[in-house]
Specification:
CATH architecture: Alpha-Beta Barrel
Shape: globular
CATH class: Alpha Beta
Order of helices and strands: EHEEHEHEHEEEHEHEHHEHEHH
Strand content: 5-15%
Largest sheet: 8 strands, parallel, barrel
Number of helices: 11
Structural class: alpha/beta
Number of domains: 1
Strand order of the largest sheet: 1-4-5-6-9-10-11-12
C-alpha cells in the first residue's frame, strides 16, 4: 500500500520557523520522522506562475517549478517516491475554479493546446535534467468540472456544455503527449473529487475514454464531510475497478482534529453542520478515521492514499493566500490565515497527533 502525504507547503513552513514534536521531543529530521511513521511517497502540487504583477507570491506554498524541484530533489534523496500534481493554473484549482495561467489568458483553443503540450514537456524535462524520478503524474487537480476554463469546462449551472467533454479530452491528450515525450514510465493519474457520486465517475470517465484519453489510474479526493460514507465510496471504487477497469488511488484525504479555530483564520470546516461527520472532530476521532480508512483501502484493493497537508500549521506569515492571490481566483471575500490547519496531523503547537499511530501500524 502507498502511504503518502502532500506536503507542498513545507518550504514555507520551514521559513516560518515552525517546530514539530513527537511525544514532546523536538523532531530534528522531519523526513526521518515521516519514514518512521510508514510514509513512502509524497505528492507535490505545481502552479505555473504563482506571483502577482509586482512579483509578490500568492502564498499557499508558492509552488512554482523551482521550489517544487528543490523539494523533490530533497525528497527523492531521502528515498520517497514522488507524485507531481499539475494544477495548470497560477494558483489553487478545484471543481469551483480552474483559472487559466495569466500568460495563457488570451490564447485560442489551438494555441492553448500547443502551450499545454510545451509546458508539460518542459516541466518533465526539468525533473529529468535534475535526475528526479517521478512515479506518478497527476494531469489536473480535481477536474470533475474540467480544467482551463472556459475552454475545458464541462458544466455551467448543472447544464452540460455542448462539446465540453470533447474539448477537455483534447486538452488532456495535449498535456499527456508532452509528458510522454520525456517520461514513458510514470503512471498518469486523472483526479476527481465527489468520490461518493458513482454517477459522475461513470459519466466522466466513460466520456474521456471514448474520446481517446489514455491514462493509468483514477485518482479520488475523499473527505467524509463533503463526500459521505465509506459505503458511498465503495460503490464508486467498485465502478472504477470493474466497469471502468482502472486501479484507484486516494490522492487527497483528511479529517478534522479540532473545531477550535486557528489563530487569525476562518476554518473551512468549523462545525458539524452541512456535512457527513462519522467520527467526533477530535484527536481520537481523526485517528479512528485513519485506522478505518486504511482497513477500507486494503479491503477494496485501492493502491493507497495521500493525506493532504499534515504539516501545514498556522505559523508566522503562513496563509492559504495573499490578497492578490484571492483576487486571481475571485475569492476576495475570504480571510487570511490557514483555513485548513485543523485537518493537520499535528496540533497548532506542533505536537504530533494519534493518527500517526494508525498510519504506522496500518
Amino acid at each position: 500500500m502507498i502511504k503518502g502525504i502532500d506536503i507542498s507547503s513545507l518550504l514555507e513552513m520551514e521559513t516560518s520557523g515552525q517546530k514539530y514534536y513527537h511525544r514532546h521531543v523536538l523532531i530534528t529530521d522531519m523526513f526521518h520522522f515521516l519514514k518512521d511513521q510508514g510514509i513512502s511517497s509524497v505528492r507535490l502540487r505545481l502552479w505555473v506562475d504563482p506571483y502577482d504583477m509586482e512579483g509578490e507570491p500568492y502564498l499557499g506554498g508558492t509552488c512554482d517549478l523551482n521550489r517544487v524541484l528543490l523539494m523533490a530533489k530533497r525528497l527523492a534523496k531521502a528515498g520517497f517516491t514522488l507524485l507531481l500534481d499539475f494544477h495548470f493554473s497560477d494558483f489553487w484549482t478545484d471543481p469551483g475554479k480552474q483559472t487559466k495561467p495569466k500568460a495563457w489568458k488570451n490564447f485560442s483553443f489551438d494555441e492553448l493546446n500547443v502551450a499545454l503540450e510545451t509546458y508539460t514537456e518542459k516541466t518533465i524535462r526539468a525533473f529529468k535534467d535534475h535526475a528526479i524520478k517521478l512515479s506518478y503524474i497527476q494531469v489536473g487537480n480535481e477536474i470533475t468540472n474540467g480544467f482551463l476554463w472556459p475552454e475545458g469546462k464541462l458544466y455551467n449551472q448543472n447544464e452540460l456544455i455542448v462539446g465540453g467533454y470533447e474539448r477537455m479530452s483534447t486538452l488532456l491528450k495535449s498535456a499527456i503527449k508532452g509528458i510522454k515525450k520525456v517520461d514513458t514510465e510514470a503512471k498518469i493519474i486523472l483526479h476527481l473529487e465527489r468520490s461518493g457520486d458513482q454517477k459522475i465517475y461513470r459519466e466522466w470517465f466513460t466520456n474521456v475514454i471514448r474520446n481517446g484519453v489514455v491514462f493509468d489510474i483514477i485518482g479520488l479526493s475523499y473527505y467524509p464531510f463533503y463526500h459521505g460514507s465509506f459505503a458511498n465510496l465503495k460503490r464508486t471504487i467498485e465502478l472504477c475497478h470493474h466497469e471502468l477497469h482502472h486501479p484507484t488511488l486516494i490522492v487527497e484525504t483528511g479529517y478534522v482534529h479540532t473545531l477550535c479555530p486557528a489563530p487569525g483564520a476562518k476554518m473551512v470546516v468549523k462545525d458539524y453542520e452541512d456535512g457527513y461527520v462519522p467520527y467526533p472532530y477530535s484527536e481520537k476521532g481523526q485517528a479512528l478515521f485513519m485506522g478505518d480508512l486504511i482497513k477500507f483501502i486494503e479491503e477494496q484493493q485501492i493502491l493507497g492514499f495521500y493525506y493532504w497537508e499534515p504539516l501545514w500549521l498556522p505559523a508566522k506569515n503562513i496563509s492559504w493566500s495573499s490578497v492578490s492571490g484571492r483576487e486571481y481566483i475571485h475569492e476576495e471575500e475570504k480571510s487570511d490565515g490557514n483555513e485548513w490547519s485543523n485537518h493537520a496531523l499535528f496540533d497548532y503547537e506542533g505536537e504530533s497527533l494519534l493518527a500517526w499511530q494508525e498510519i504506522k501500524k496500518g
